Amino acid sequence: xxxxxxxxxxxxxxxxxxxxxxxxxxxxxxxxxxxxxxxxxxxxxxxxxxxxxxxxxxxxxxxxxxxxxxxxxxxxxxxxxxxxxxxxxxxxxxxxxxxxxxxxxxxxxxxxxxxxxxxxxxxxxxxx
Length: 128
Description:
- The chain has helices spanning 4-17, 31-38, 54-64, 88-96; strands at residues 41-47, 72-75, 80-84, 100-102, 105-111.
- The chain is α+β, with helices and mostly antiparallel strands and 128 residues long.
- Strands 2-3-1-5-4 form a five-stranded antiparallel β-sheet, with helices on one face.
- The protein is elongated and about 70 Å long.
- It comes from Morella rubra (Chinese bayberry).
- Residues 43-119 form the DUF4283 domain.
- InterPro entries: DUF4283 (IPR025558).
């Protein structure tokens, strides 16, 4: 039967064996890869008094943007969305057709830059 001191000693040894050096470096990405990835991504925000449900919005979006093969859309907080295209052509086509309106709600789009955080993306104005 182990004592409290034995359990503390075991926990201490296990904790000392942990090292930041052994963690995988998953966050490191070279600049070329980051630029290539960001060239196929933009962030959007849906504005309106009562935006449609996320599932309704995503279904409409995939129907209207059916030319964007393998489009992936991630719903984020505050009616914001992350749009990831498999090819730059689909993204460019969407951006060339702005402004977008879904059931009376304006969808503002902004290119994602690898140097920016989500908090730095300004979705407070439209350029049309």
